[in-house]
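Whiteboard transcription, Tuesday session. T.W. wrote the structure tokens on the left side:
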């Protein structure tokens, strides 16, 4: 991409603060959904809903995030939410606790993963991250897979002060963001940058 940007308005993935909450603006599970589409394992209605979500631009969500004043933002793309959260935590010198049960999911995504459906990128991300994401005992392995799987045209991942999170989520809903879900929080740095809880 090429273009111009106002240096005073740049939003990076590096400004998260200890205590910030992590918000995602689109449901997750597109890797499983797209694999399910390719293998004719999901209904046309679910496929259509996923396509509509993918076609939804992040511009409105970005504008709300800037208006509210988030501390950091990035998009959720081909490396999955866990890797993008990892990048934010690494850049800030913090650890992020990613609450997998709070992740908004596409319909049928969990069931598809249970039957072995995920994108090829899942294995690459798992290999790349190695032992960096630590999963607490008892965490649903299907949710871990979804957190590591690719998201095509995913939403934004936003680090926001807890005092601003209600305004952010209300603004996202008002602007038609497909999701406005709190999925984690930033804490003091531990032995790894991402903990899956």
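and on the right, the sequence the group agreed on:
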């Amino acid at each position: 991409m090429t273009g111009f940007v106002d240096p005073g308005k740049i939003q990076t993935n590096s400004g998260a603060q200890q205590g910030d909450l992590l918000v995602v603006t689109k449901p997750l599970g597109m890797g499983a959904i797209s694999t399910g589409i390719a293998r004719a394992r999901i209904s046309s209605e679910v496929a259509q809903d996923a396509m509509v979500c993918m076609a939804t631009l992040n511009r409105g969500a970005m504008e709300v995030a800037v208006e509210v004043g988030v501390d950091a933002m990035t998009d959720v793309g081909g490396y999955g939410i866990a890797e993008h959260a990892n990048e934010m935590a690494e850049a800030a010198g913090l650890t992020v606790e990613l609450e997998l049960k709070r992740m908004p999911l596409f319909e049928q995504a969990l069931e598809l993963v249970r039957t072995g459906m995920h994108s090829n990128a899942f294995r690459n991300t798992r290999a790349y991250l190695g032992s960096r994401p630590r999963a607490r005992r008892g965490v649903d392995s299907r949710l871990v897979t979804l957190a590591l799987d690719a998201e095509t045209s995913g939403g934004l991942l936003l680090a926001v002060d807890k005092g601003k999170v209600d305004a952010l989520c209300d603004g996202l809903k008002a602007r038609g963001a497909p999701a406005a879900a709190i999925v984690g929080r930033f804490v003091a740095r531990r032995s790894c940058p991402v903990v899956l809880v």
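Someone added at the bottom: The chain is about 40% helix and 15% strand.
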